Amino acid sequence: MKGLVYEGQGQIAWRDVPDPGIQDAADAVVRVDAVSICGTDLHIVKGDVPEVTPGTVLGHEAVGEVVETGSDVRSVRPGDRVLVSCVTPCGRCRYCRGKQYGQCLGGGGWVLGHLIDGTQAEYVRVPFADLSLHPLSNTVASTDAVLLADIFPTAYEVGVVNGKVRPGDTVAVVGAGPVGLAVIATALLYTPGRIIVTDLAAARLDAARAVGADATVSAAEEPEHLVADLTDGLGADVAVEAVGLPETFDLCTRMVRPGGRVANVGVHGQPAPLHLEDLWIKDVTITTGLVDTYSTPLLLKLVEEGKLPTAGLLTHRFALSRMAEAYDVFSRPAETGALKVVLTTGTAHDAVLPTEDDRR
């Protein structure tokens, strides 16, 4: 089969790789029908995630059809259409029993496209299939469902829930990429007073307003001043970092009010400043986290009911074999306008976007 292989810092290739097979009784093999590219994949290609070794098939987000299962798998069977979660929990260890699946000690956690071969391929082996695969309703398009493999659970759990967004809160979101937009969408479930979004790209600020942001401001225009103006100088109740850069984390700590919360969602590849000389007296709570995906069933239900805006986050669709081109488009959002890029096969269920070939 073909897969997108990490070959070292700055190098990827769509090439032949071995077909996956059942290695453990809890495994399943899934034929990939739709897959997306995550900002974390870009961090890997840049060399920011040294645990990923050359030769690894990348990717941790997919929708597909189960083609084979191990003898212990009970919740899915061949022929089932499923969402492949970005986190694969063993379900038995101390952390999994507390639904902290991202911290799994039993060989799971974030392993796909990280410690083992991932989803950006024609087929993928999924460990711990009973907890890692979610059967899909025929009412949910593959191009919508794939957004629930990672970005929506990440935004909701690590941004909104960790940030303790409450009714009436002022929420500042730094970064209007796919995860930042999903933060806006899921924060709205808690009826905040206002959501203020900052980004460098005008197109992403437009997208933020379309998803539900109340105010937007360019990151080049000292956005902390707008937050102060809109809160009578107090600051945001919750500041969500959705970029992963030292300067964006620092901006969140300047935006947050005394007693407020900073929820870091972004993947950081270098140290970020922590100005405790300013923060120690402000009673600020800072949270970090890897998504646990405990919320995936809830979010799938909301998508089925039309209560989460998924389609607006998808801007480009490619054939699966155009993986390298898709990475290029996704890595240059200021030029391409890319938000979320999805790659599909001819069997994808209800693929709603034209492919780049269709556009020509």
Brief overview:
The protein has 360 residues and is of the alpha/beta class. It contains 14 helices and 16 strands.
Which descriptors would you attach to this protein?
27% helix; seven-stranded mixed beta sheet; 360 residues; six-stranded parallel beta sheet; globular; alpha/beta; single chain
- Overall 3D shape: globular
Cα-atom Rg, whole angstroms?
A: 20 Å
The fraction of residues assigned to DSSP E strands is 15-25%
Q: How many β-strand stretches?
A: 16
Largest sheet: 7 strands, mixed
Order of helices and strands: EEEHEEEHEHEHHEHEHEHEHEHEHEHHEH
Number of helices, counting only DSSP H or I runs of 4 residues or more? 14
Low-confidence stretches: 351-360
- Percent helix: 25-40%
Return the average pLDDT rounded to an integer. Answer: 94
Span between termini: 28 Å
Assign the structural class, choosing from mainly alpha, mainly beta, alpha/beta, alpha+beta, or little secondary structure.
Answer: alpha/beta
Plain-language structure description:
Helix 7 (202-211) links the parallel strand 10 and strand 11. This protein has 14 helices and 16 strands. Helix 5 (151-161) packs across helix 6 and helix 8 (223-230) packs parallel to helix 9. The longest helix has 11 residues, at 151-161. The model is unreliable at 351-360 (pLDDT under 50). Helix content is 27%, strand content 24%. The strands form three sheets. Strands 3, 5, 6, 7, 8, 15 and 16 form a seven-stranded mixed sheet that branches. The chain has helices at 39-46, 94-97, 129-132, 142-145, 151-161, 178-187, 202-211, 223-230, 246-255, 276-279, 296-304, 323-330, 333-336, 356-359; strands spanning 2-8, 11-16, 28-36, 56-57, 62-69, 81-84, 123-126, 133-135, 170-174, 194-199, 215-218, 236-241, 256-264, 285-287, 314-319, 340-344. It is α/β, with parallel strands linked by helices.
